[in-house]
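// run 5 | inverse folding | seed 20
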């Protein structure tokens, strides 16, 4: 039996044989008409399908068989690779000859492509075997590939200027990379100024491009440590005046914290003194307290030497009484 509804039979019952396709009304084999099965055709090609063929012959029980005919394609979803992506090979039955695949950019299959597509998008594919049987139309979907973006944690020192995380490493998208800074590990509190000492959390985002999806990195830490301060103080030599003689003011770079001075009478700095009036040598320890962006300084010392006053310069009279 061929697919136009005709039976190849011999014998006395030839004119009594009738054929029906897909359980349709039977038609005498010698009256078979292709138009009888017009609903099974498209553009002159038999549609792929599983056909039910029933043969009726006088004096015999009807014979029924199913014939899976044609070239059929399955829809396919793939991910962009940078190379052309083809539909999976067609399932072919009762077909001789090579299968030709044609790719289209539109569902109506009017805009044919030169070959299998590469770029992400939705495409439509048809296959024809031996220029006789045409497949169904299959959908080929190429999705954008995933991107990845990674950051490395960073430790820096306060400079008074914004400290930025180092550039992210991106694989995939060529889109713009942006960075978002947070003050909390949960990344809920954005900050625009990452200048002061402290711990910040940073994420990088790469925008999607034509072939790759957008992506966001895991959060990493940006730790800005406190900077060192410097404090300098010059030793001082003075002459006894009868009043306390203080060391000069220290020169501080960095911290705005309090500068403290401690006076000692001995070189081992075990005997503090609060009155540094009399002639002698005093040892002054000094340091500056750190602030939010600077550390404390190490304590250092210098000397204050108070010399005895010259009697000829310091002797004065008052009501006849001599005094220094």
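// decoded
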């Amino acid at each position: 039996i061929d697919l136009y509804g005709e039976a190849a039979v011999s014998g006395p019952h030839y004119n009594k044989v009738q054929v029906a396709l897909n359980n349709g009304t039977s038609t005498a084999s010698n009256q078979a008409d292709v138009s009888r099965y017009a609903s099974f055709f498209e553009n002159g090609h038999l549609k792929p399908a599983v056909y039910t063929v029933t043969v009726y012959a006088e004096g015999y029980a009807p014979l029924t068989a199913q014939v899976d005919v044609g070239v059929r394609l399955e829809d396919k979803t793939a991910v962009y690779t940078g190379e052309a992506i083809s539909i999976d090979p067609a399932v072919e039955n009762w077909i001789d000859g090579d299968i030709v695949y044609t790719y289209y950019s539109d569902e109506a299959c009017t805009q044919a492509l030169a070959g299998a597509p590469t770029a992400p998008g939705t495409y439509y594919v048809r296959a024809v075997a031996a220029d006789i049987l045409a497949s169904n139309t299959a959908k080929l979907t190429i999705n954008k590939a995933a991107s990845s973006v990674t950051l490395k944690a960073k430790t820096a020192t306060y400079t008074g200027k914004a400290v930025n995380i180092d550039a992210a490493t991106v694989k995939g998208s060529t889109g713009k990379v942006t960075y978002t800074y947070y003050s909390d590990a949960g990344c809920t509190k954005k900050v625009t100024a990452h200048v002061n000492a402290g711990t910040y959390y940073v994420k990088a985002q790469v925008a999607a491009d034509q072939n790759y999806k957008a992506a966001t990195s895991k959060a990493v830490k940006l730790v800005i440590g406190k900077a060192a301060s410097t404090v300098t103080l010059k030793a001082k030599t003075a002459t006894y005046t009868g009043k306390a003689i203080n060391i000069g003011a220290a020169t501080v770079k960095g911290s705005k914290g309090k500068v403290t001075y401690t006076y000692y009478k001995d070189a081992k700095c075990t005997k503090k003194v609060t009155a540094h009036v009399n002639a002698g040598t005093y040892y002054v320890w000094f340091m500056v307290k750190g602030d939010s962006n600077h550390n404390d300084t190490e304590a250092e010392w210098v000397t204050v030497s108070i010399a005895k006053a010259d009697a000829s310069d310091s002797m004065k009279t008052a009501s006849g009484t001599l005094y220094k």
